[in-house]
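#struct-help
A.M.: can someone run this one for me? Single chain, 139 residues.
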Amino acid sequence: MTLDPQPLEPALAAADAAGWTTVRLDLDGVRGKAELMRRCGVALRLPEWVGGNWDALADAMRDLSWLPEAGGRLVAVTSWRGYADVRPAEWETFVEVLEEAVDFWREQGGGPGLTVLLAEAGPAAAAPARTPRLKRRPG
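D.P.: on it. Structure tokens below:
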């Protein structure tokens, strides 16, 4: 996962050329956890059993069996700065969930991997300051 904002189109083109499944997760206007979870559910086509909590999202990100078979998966998170600025603790937990999912798929080796890209339109600026990893995710 890259936490430095990256241009979106080259990444999508490269993923497409490699035969990867691409998912765009647009967070424009998201200002709370409930809306974030709804957007994740729609973009990732999550099953109904995935509830609106961090642990359920983390479990789902380690499964992904409902996505089309592919050599890899790219999740491009766009327009995320507003959410990160308004809900920094939630953002940090979301980033942790994504990082853990990327690590999980990397450890699987040989199968489809997972790449998460934080993308922004316009000039790239530094990513928000990071806080230490959380020991437990709040409900």
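A.M.: thanks! The chain has a mean pLDDT of 83.
D.P.: also worth noting: The longest strand covers residues 72-78.
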